[in-house]
From TrEMBL:
Protein name: LacI family transcriptional regulator
Highest taxon in the source lineage: Bacteria
TM stretches of this protein: none
Organism taxonomic ancestry: Bacteria, Pseudomonadati, Pseudomonadota, Alphaproteobacteria, Rhodospirillales
Domain (HTH lacI-type) ranges: 3-57
UniProtKB keywords: DNA-binding, Repressor, Transcription, Transcription regulation
GO MF annotation terms: DNA-binding transcription factor activity; transcription cis-regulatory region binding
Matching Pfam families: LacI, Peripla_BP_3
Length: 333
């Protein structure tokens, strides 16, 4: 039988409300009472009921974490960081997989059934209407990795994907490439659209010729392989900007299968700087997306909204940077 709050109160010689306050964060209780209650709880093996506490405080401490693209290993890195960041705030993630889900209202209904305190939409490929659906349902929401908006309706934390695409073009020029190709993620993803737009605009400004442009059907290794095989039908390009590291790894292996050497025959620059990008088999030069900074900031925002739900929407953008490894030809001194 589970030990009850009443038994702890009797053992400590205090009221049940004193026990409850001892295990309620921020509640007022004297040091003497706290010491007696904690000792009685240890002696009896008592653990406070989170469900009972949520009923008393009207807070579940659950944060809905909505994501898709689970086939991409980078999500494991993202989920690890979110889990630890929320647990450090005494919160818990409730993960929702939207890989095959297109109806925002179903997601809202699901998470409201669990009475989540807030929601983080952690995806650059889900349309903004998912986050807006939670706002309309009066659930505190932050869109992490969301699309930049100068006048936001919801809280957005992420990067300027157009600027990052331009950074990729500048990097290829610095490495002495003239004819380049673009290989993006799904064309329906706003992140892919913006990276392509920034890359194309800046390439034209600095004199790079984009000889091929193609979108993969998913942020996946096999999609990168397949798309690269199609790009290789027109081999006028000298280097490829891939809008995702995993797509880039598939593309690199397709190039190797075709007998090409990297970076001697063709150069590659990816996007994200996922852990696998540093593996010796790839040693991928890439654009680093500051994933940990985005995650910590989105957690900070959703926590602040728990106490101030009327907080005005804001955009927090973090800069990207180039991580030089071995997939572009050296810069001549």
């Amino acid at each position: 039988m589970a030990v009850t709050l009443k038994e702890v109160a009797e053992r400590a010689g205090v009221s049940r409300s004193a026990v409850s306050r001892t295990f309620t964060q921020g509640a007022s209780v004297s040091a003497k009472t706290r010491k007696k209650v904690e000792k009685a709880a240890r002696d009896l093996g008592y653990s406070p009921s989170l469900i009972a506490r949520s009923l008393a405080t009207n807070r579940t401490k659950l944060i809905g974490l909505i994501a898709n693209n689970f086939q991409n290993p980078v999500f494991l890195e993202v989920f690890d960081l979110y889990t630890r960041a929320l647990q450090e705030r005494n919160l818990r993630p409730l993960l929702v997989n939207l890989t095959d889900q297109t109806d925002p209202s179903a997601s809202v209904q699901l998470l409201k059934q669990y009475s989540v305190d807030g929601v983080i939409v952690a995806s650059s490929t889900l349309p903004p209407l998912f986050a807006h659906a939670f706002k309309e349902a009066q659930v505190p929401v932050v869109h992490a990795f969301g699309r930049f908006a100068s006048t936001p309706d919801i809280h957005i934390v992420g990067i300027d994907n157009e600027h990052c695409g331009a950074l990729a073009a500048e990097t290829l020029q610095k490495h002495r490439y003239k004819r380049v190709a673009f290989l993006g993620g799904p064309q329906s993803a706003t992140s892919a659209q913006d990276r392509a737009a920034g890359f194309t605009r800046r390439a034209k400004e600095i004199g790079l010729e984009i000889v091929s442009s193609l979108y993969a059907d998913a942020y996946a290794y096999n999609s990168g392989q397949q798309a690269m095989r199609e790009l290789l039908n027109d081999r006028r390009f000298e280097a490829v900007f891939c809008g995702d590291d995993l797509i880039c790894m598939g593309a690199m292996d397709a190039a190797r299968d075709a007998g090409l050497s990297i970076p001697q025959d063709v150069g590659f620059i990816g996007f994200n700087d996922m852990n696998m990008a540093a593996w010796q088999a790839y040693s991928l030069t890439t654009i680093r997306q500051p994933t940990s900074e985005i995650i910590l900031s989105s957690v900070d925002l959703v926590v602040s909204m728990l106490d101030t739900p009327e907080r005005a929407p804001e955009v927090r953008l973090f800069p990207c940077s180039v991580v030089e490894r071995g997939t572009l030809k050296p810069i001549e001194g």
